[in-house]
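Assess this today:

___
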Amino acid sequence: MITLGRYGAWLHPVYDDPSRIGYAVEAEALGYGAVWLGLGQRDESELRLVEQVLDATRHVVVATAIVNMWTNDPTALAKSCDRLEARHPGRFLLGIGIGHPESVTGYRSPYQHMESFLDALDAEGHPRDRRVLAALGPRTLRLAADRAAGTHPYLTVPGHTQQARRLLGPGSLLAPEHTVVVDTDTTEARRRGRAFVSNPYLRLSNYVNNLLRQGYDETDVAGDGSDRLIDDLVLHGTPETIAAGLAGHFAAGADHVAIQVLPGEGEGPMPGLRTLAGQLIS
């Protein structure tokens, strides 16, 4: 299994590709063990951005978060994975998932589609220990344990991590994403966090249903989200406070946490990742 280290940098697709290449180079220099490239819904079968990031860095693991199973061809994707493995052995982790029913035309039988996609990757010889599934619910978490190295859950809290570990068992990789705002101004941090969470995530049924499974109620997920929900999903405060919140995932059974920084106006993610590296990475 690929070793990701304790913390990774999660880079949102809102940043253009040249910026993310530069961010990845700096994240590696800061000591982050992995760079997660948010990809959205587009066709990424050629994995060109991943290749550019791998070429620009020396040892950091580069992971996709995620390649969408509806908009990508598994045969072409497997061939691209082979190409990257040959050029950069042991440094690429394929994150794949089913996306959201609201954003994909023809979204039917998602679990069966996941199985068929994995069957196609297997047929091309893609190794299971070089891929993770974006899994939230019990059924897909079990699939991640059976058909992949593990899972990369998004927009979750340590309570979900604990349940995921119980379903995955001890041998699977559990690498949740967690969003943060490095700011001690609670009003400003909640403003950024609420803008991020409310649209689109509180308008996407898979995320809302997962939050309800985790013990949040209808008042938490209504409108733009309760303060409790926003504070849990988007940690904020000093680096020490954020570190303590992220540690909850490790106490619950995570192997790795991918940190997504919500920047201030006119900033990118690197100021926050730099500040946190001083606290998190020794």
